[in-house]
Design goal:
This protein has about 400 residues and is α+β, with helices and mostly antiparallel strands. Among the domains are: about 1-40; about 130-235; about 295-390, Efflux pump adaptor protein, beta barrel domain (Elongation Factor Tu (Ef-tu), domain 3, Beta Barrel). It is about 50% helix and about 25% strand. It has 7 helices and 11 strands. The protein is rod-shaped, with a radius of gyration of 61 Å. Residues about 1-10, about 40-45 and about 355-360 have low confidence and may be disordered.
Length: about 400
Amino acid sequence: MVASEIGVKLRHPRRITVVIAGFVMLIAGVVLYHTIKSHPTQPTISTIKPTIRTISALGRLEPDGEVVNVFAPTSTDGARVDSLKVDHGQFIRKGQIIAILDTYARRQAVLEEAQQQVVVAQNRLKQVEAGAKLGQIQAQKQVVDRLQAELVTETAAQEATLARVKAELQNAELEARRYQQLYIEGAVSASLRDTKQLQADTVSDSLNEARASLSRIILSRQKQIAEAKATLNQIAEVRPVDVEVAGSQVSQAQAGVGRAKAELDLAVVRSPQNGQVLKIHTRPGELVANKGIISLGQTQKMVAVAEVYELDISRVRVGQSATITSKNNAFADVLHGKVFEVGLEVGKKDVLNTDPAAQFDARVVEVKVHLDPKSSRQVAGLTNLSVQMEINVQS
């Protein structure tokens, strides 16, 4: 019955067409399924990265070489400014006097005293090299001549005395021998004989004393003459050791002058470089505080210092061009410059951003940009101004 029903249905052409179309669609679906299963398709994802042409960063303006705070030289006397030799905004040269401290006058007096000591030591050296005065030498020669003359006269006088005593002794001995003979003959008494012998002995003692006096005179005067001659030689002699001692005294005095000059120089504050006085921190009569006496900068050539995020610093190179604009319209034109230094240290941000969503603890690297001459002149008086910088990392 079923077969007969199918046969009846197939007798209608429209139904036959529908059945054939269904079989075709079924076969096509099976083929498509197997094709997709054997060759699965992958979704297409674009791998092209966007090109970064510029890097933006906050920064500040400063003179080339940074701002220098000039202090007084270190001293135990303290540092009080006596007079100021520069004005605000003045351009000064390296070595130019900035200020005079209140210790200058006292140290100047010490220097003058040391210089006088040098003069005294030099004159002493000349005196030693020249030897004694001619008058001293002549006076000492006269002393020698006088002693020699005294030796001659005293010796002659004592020799005369000695000769006289010798003659007296001869007479006394002759008289004693004669009385001795008379005593033997009984012509005189023993007492008279002894008296004559005593006189002879007395004269003999006088002779010995006169001889001793002559020897003493000769020895004493010869010693005095020798001493006088030695003094004369000492006066007239110029010893090398004396010259060396006097020369050492000159060197010592000159060293004192050098030390006094160094102390005096500590009372003078000089500029360490060429630049412009940006600010005066200490006025005459004030002690030098922790900010120094003045702030000095080379404003003839300004530099922009940008704080580049550490993730972007790998793209920054020396020689890349940069443009600088003011965040608060402090200058109207766009400044131009080139990167000349890329920092080697990562630190925290110093320039504050007004954006409340900004990262204040972000890690950054300082990048320095030399401004061209026109841009540098335009912002010469805007040290520490906050700026916005764009670095062309493709240049």
